[in-house]
């Protein structure tokens, strides 16, 4: 039985939307146990149905979104996120979910759940949608766990991403690309030039060379490898550009007279469809990969639907045995 | 009289569209001299009008888009880009324009036109549009001239950007932001943490702190400072995301039945308006700032309109005296 430890107090709409998402998922995945960590009274307010596979574990504290990550997880010993992470560490749960403070969740993953032996730097990895390409999706790693990376960290991201793509997303022999400032193999900064050589030499990685940020959303590889600073900037740029464009379009339609207004009414369903495909949250949360159990972060604005998709993703990760086999790989390599 | 040296052979549609853009601009800016460097016969084919302020200087070679930058500018001594750069170096022209090979143009700027004394790393700087913000535009630097940067290079980008924003774009006391992975002053990688301190301490810079990639298109600062690797990735991500989104929208409209098709017809003018505002080329080319004369790169796909806007931008740069005053500043600091 898969058991998921859930930080019920993390996120802008916690605990209400977290609990709502858990109820929706628990009804569908009746063989999975959902452990809700947080203020019991607050959780029970929204726990409108009694389901056998939902448990509530009371915690007296919570990590706030502006808490200093490392300090807060050390001081707030009874915080929902911290207690949930400990449940994973101690084998009472298989995975950790939170929509709360990203830094604190990364710290909980690294310092409480703990790194897989042989992995120097676990990385944060979202699943991103592909537009106008053959693929449905791809993963990118790291997008923010490590602001400074050494070449072999990126090589390990390549292994981690390959395993995830294969086990969880079902891609056969996933391709790995290196995010770089040009496609030629001689391009790059000091870091990517070295990484290019490591990825080329590593036989466990199906390396297809450099990929450029311009082609990212066309899915140039199943796994895109980058340092956490660049990955973070690129991810936030995708988000910011999409939001800015949709806003501009809306404003432009509203201000350009009757003709366009009429068009907007007719186009409403089309717009909605695009908006939801831009929303990469529906493709699942970002996974901290390289720790002993999956630690998954949903966006702070996570609603019932996001929580539902992310929990289903976590169930798939756990049943795929990707972590077990990664532990094996890094023990023997 | 402002004299602009133009590489007539650079770009996907050269020399036709370059010459067309020059004719359009030369008619308007009758006090500016336009020097067309390239294959005289080819240029004359498109030079449909004889204007007193257009000169043709024949060159027997050209740099191709896939030529290795540094090697090609050294070997092809009679290439249009190289001869045009020499004209700037030798004082026969005030600025250099090309839509050709970016690497070769950067090399021409650095090795032929030459760095301003005191500037270690000239940077490439585009003017970017602002969506849904108070500002019209902002500049970002570096977006690709320097893949590896030291902290003081970014400090110099702050000065260069400030001068450009003030002299050329007419912004009073321009704000400078540091592209980083969080807004708090303690955030960042090793590089940005050091840069944050340098920018804070520098009295010539109106530093407003860290800015995140998510808010870039809302214009969080007049000048955004970043290393050339990250800046390149961010710029290409903006471009790729905008293109992917507009394509998806088009496809979605076409495939979703009569209702939406009708909407698309009505919305056509609105779409066109958005497309042209996304097109940051209309805001001008990217400037290699920090060399002795403005070196300006237009996109490889530059058409008559892009060439026109970019040449007008160059005229403004030269008449603003920004380069002269930058030379003064770096000589005395």
UniProtKB/TrEMBL annotation, chains A, B:
UniProtKB keywords: Acyltransferase, Cytoplasm, Lipid biosynthesis, Lipid metabolism, Phospholipid biosynthesis, Phospholipid metabolism, Transferase
Keyword Acyltransferase part of the UniProt annotation: yes
The protein's name in its UniProt record: Phosphate acyltransferase
Classification via Pfam families: FA_synthesis
Assembly, per entry: Homodimer. Probably interacts with PlsY.
Organism: Granulicatella balaenopterae
Family: Belongs to the PlsX family.
EC number: 2.3.1.274
Protein's pathway: Lipid metabolism; phospholipid metabolism
